[in-house]
Amino acid sequence: MAQHSIKTKWRKNNIFDTDIDGHTITVDLAKEAGGDDAGPRPKKLVLVAAAGCTGMDVVSILRKMRIELKGFNIQIEAEMSEEHPKQYISMKVIYEFEGNDLPREKLEKAVSLSFENYCGVMAMYKKAIPITYEIRIKE
Question: Which CATH superfamily is domain 42-138 in?
Answer without folding.
Answer: K homology (KH) domain (3.30.300.20)
